[in-house]
Amino acid sequence: MVKALKVISRLRFKRVRTAVVADIRRQVSMDVGKRAEAGLQQNYQYKIIRIMRPDDANIMGNVHGGIILKMIEEAGCIVSTRHCNTQDGDRCLALLVRVEKTEFLSPVFIGEVVHITAEITYTSKHSLEVQVIVMAENILTGGKRLASKAALWYVPCSLQNVSNIMEVPSIQYVSAEQEEEGRKRYEAQKIERMETKARVEEVMPPLPNSEPHTVGFSQSSLIHLVGPLDCILHDYVHGGVTMKLMDEVAGIVAARHCNTNIVTASVDAINFHRKIKKGCVVTVTGRLTFVSNRSMELEVLVDAASLVEKEMKKYRAVSAFFTFISLDKDNMPLPVPPLKIKGEEEQRRFEEGNARYLQAKAKRLADNRQQ
């Protein structure tokens, strides 16, 4: 049965994977090969390999997107922190500030081995970009497939004073063109982060007894007390822990709307606005913003407030958009129930989500034509 599900899933994702593989190889794999020839690969790259266990997956055997996101962030944090500590001066820790659009190109199942490769691809004065690819391996056949890809941005913070952002050692680029492309990505994400901060808004509680297939009916929240196991050095929450909580809430919202098996299809840019410290109570809220025939966009917001420091008011810590799809028992896509809009604010968010959907669709078509 599991083997049949894998075959079906591979057919379903074949077109998407074909359009993306060449792009991944061009932007990451080719650079890795060239750096290996130059003896630079070990400095800029880190790998994590782990078998997927039953507690990593849902009842259908699909590994949770939040598990993959957490492993992606762990690899990115390690390679970034290692690189930033190659220079003299204070020791530092690389903290996650943004995750670019993350695509889940193929589902991962229990018993498969996940290979995560994180590589530093650009450095500015105070930040660095890490690109990550995730391969899933069937250990019975040895076959591998591209499961996911992501790009993350980190800043190094001094261990003596976490508020002190340190300078990042520069990397050696394969070509001037590669450096210029990285600079363009840096400028673009910087502008988007500033725009996202300006759009921070309060989350309104859902109306009681909301009608099915409305925003209020599926809107969900998770409250979590940040403990020592959630934190890295200096008692700040690990970015991967936050992303896992966000994926869990988004999955609950999507399942309530569809009442079917659902999986994460992609994650739009995740922006980490402020750090979250041990002892904070975080409220993770997810709500539907847009629904197409085959997918759902959900906004996930993370608010934090200190449990002991009364003077610290509640603040917005993280925000992101997740995209989910509905699947039947054979892991084939199902139509998504239409979203019933109530009020001007929901209509505005729906139109903005539609614009993002059309933009992403146009990009996929352009990539397909290019291939």
TrEMBL record:
Database matches in CDD domains: BFIT_BACH
Active site: N58, D247
Domain of life: Eukaryota
GO cellular component: cytosol
Compartment list: Cytoplasm
Alphabetically ordered keywords of this record: Cytoplasm, Hydrolase, Lipid metabolism, Repeat, Serine esterase
PANTHER family documented for this protein: ACYL COENZYME A THIOESTER HYDROLASE, CYTOSOLIC ACYL COENZYME A THIOESTER HYDROLASE
Protein name as catalogued: palmitoyl-CoA hydrolase
Source organism of this protein record: Oryzias sinensis
